[in-house]
Fold:
Amino acid sequence: MTAVASRGTVGRGRGSSPRPRATDRALIRALARALPLLPAILLLAAFMLGPIVYSLYGSLTDRAMTGPRAANPEFIGLDNYAALFASPDFWNSLWLTVVFILASAVIGQNVLGMLLAVLLRSAVKPLRSLVGGLVVLAWVLPEIVAAFALYAFFSKDGTLNLILGWFGLEGTSWLYYLPMLSVIVANIWRGTAFSMMVYNAALAEVPPELTEAATIDGAGAWQRFTRVTLPVIRRSISTNLLLTTLQTLGVFTLIWVMTGGGPGTQSSTLPVLAFQEAFKFAQVGYGTAIATVTLLIGAVFSIVYIKILKPEVD
Structure:
């Protein structure tokens, strides 16, 4: 009985030995597939993760642009964040940033980009080329050039008031009385081309037999668009929403050239506030804390889009 039991035990040991070997082979295959990604991972760690970690540490110090704290900053913990959350200027900038993102990116660029993509697909080729080229021109211009052009357009003696004067309408100082509206319209003009190109490519991938079947079933143009086209291109919509939101969150040059964050703080979004605190008032640690909060807001938007707007698995 003892010999039989021993042989049975050995037999089970031999029978179970292939399982660890299969696991090892699967692990080796996974590592082999991940090996080509190693250079990209190292580059991301060096040029993205490294600066983020250094920025987070800088936000926990009292570093300044001048004086003793410029050479020897001290670790002060969460003092910058405590002062930040107690500041009305921060909450004002946070509100303006959210309004700027929702109005110019989520609504403005995406809705107008989709509208242009749909209209241009049904337009004649010369008109499609002309309108598409004019829209893309705003996007390919260097941001500083576009910012100065928009400043000239919205200024008191600028192009907009000149056009209004042709129709007998009285112009105003748009950048003074309506600064946020001006920069929102400017950012929509600047970034709509990207959404238009994304949606134009997505609409080209919609199978024509789906819309033809919906037409045969009696669906109108609006029903075909909402019930057939939008579900098919939902991945492109969620991706474009994410990209335009993150791009708009980091807009600085456009606002700084047009309004400088003013008048007062009426157009001071978080990037503008961070720049002012760090370089105008020389509080680098405090400004870095604002930049870190801006980074966290971008992460929150990303998680929301990934979790809520993520398309269902087909």
Notes: The longest helix spans residues 88-122. The chain has two domains: 7-58, 88-308.
